[in-house]
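QUALITY CONTROL LOG
STEP: pairwise intake check
CHECKER ROLE: data steward
CRITERIA: each record must contain a sequence immediately followed by its structure tokens, with no blank fields

ENTRY 1 OF 2
RESULT FIELD BELOW
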Amino acid sequence: MIIYVFAILAQGTFGNSKELDAAGFNSYDFFGTVPRSMASLFQMMCFDSWSSQIMRPVGNVYTFAFFFFCFFVSLASMGMLNLLTAIFVDSLSTLSTEDAIQNEQMEAEAKHKMVTFIEETFQTFDRSGSGTLTREEVVKALQALGSAEYQHLLKDAGIELETIKGAINLADLDGDGEVAYHELMHGLEQMEDKPTKRNTWEIISMVLKVDRDIHQKLARIESKLDLLHRSSANRACKAPPDDHLDKTPLDESRLSK
């Protein structure tokens, strides 16, 4: 569009110019028609002898041609630069999108391997088939997973033994040592999730709440201890001392009897 607009202006201004022809510049060859003007301007935009072959000969006859062609070259160069930048950014965005899709597929495959491995391992050690591992079965499963036989299986599944231990501790909320399959998978998902700002604020809120509860309980304990101390002190003040006990003399006649 820029080339077309400037080509119309150049054809109307420099095309078939007797002054240019008299100066030895073939005006028709370069600007005689709109297509010829577009070709000449494209040559200038590509910096192909644009100054010595076109701008200077025309500018020597028409001084304003220097400003006209310089403005066109600057504008066209910026347009070309923006076009190349847009192409580069689009290509980079496409590559990033493809990489993201590929990473998602790889993560999905790794997660599928992990789920399959956990399910098979869980079924192997769940002797009763109840869907829950007892404390003894959990201990046996962790001992087996720590052996060399399972190391390559863990590596292929993309999971570490410490992650499984952490998931078991996270799933065993009541601390009875028994872990259900769905609880274990939920714990693994939580272990794999990336922390967010919301998680951080939730943890801070929980810590502050526990801290407030501890301080309140300590305050109640101190209040009760203070009350006990005061009560003990009051009883000690009301009790008669040993020196002032009423010592009634024994009747000698009763003793004689």
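ENTRY 2 OF 2
RESULT FIELD BELOW
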Amino acid sequence: MKPVMQTEIHLGHGDCQRAVIASLLELDPQMVPHFAMFRARYWWHVLHYFLYALGWELEGCMNPPIDERFHANLAECGIDGYHYAGVYSRTYPDVKPRVTHAVIIDSQGVVVHDPNPNQLWAGENVFEQSDIVASDLCIYLMKPREGMEEQLAEKRLPPLGRYEKGVSDE
């Protein structure tokens, strides 16, 4: 994991998700789509296909309760022990409906990278937060596509274009 900071901090249009994916995959953020620029119902598909093209399978999103099954699923997925998690924004806590924010956690739930420069989630354990209930936390389950393990371990990636506002410019 190579931490990348988000460069856009705008209510509902920041690029924290882009920064988290770039960090996990150790990519230049301009190589990753700006997911917030896609309509609400399309960003998931863009994320899925982007990861798939790079050899990763997006298994879905896992919510608490934090139990043995939760930890077993977490152990099977992730990138070098790190996971993409969606939490509520601490930058915009009073906005309704609540705004989400992307962070990177370790397998114990500790935020090891908060891409927002204000670092409001840095070092927090999202599994232990009293303000997080089952529907508020989402851990995105990513694992290598079948047959891609060696290529991913060697960090051999297919050629990528550059993305600007969700559209490839190459």
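INTAKE CHECK: passed for both entries
DESCRIPTIVE NOTE, ENTRY 2: The CA atoms of residues 60 and 141 lie 6 Å apart.
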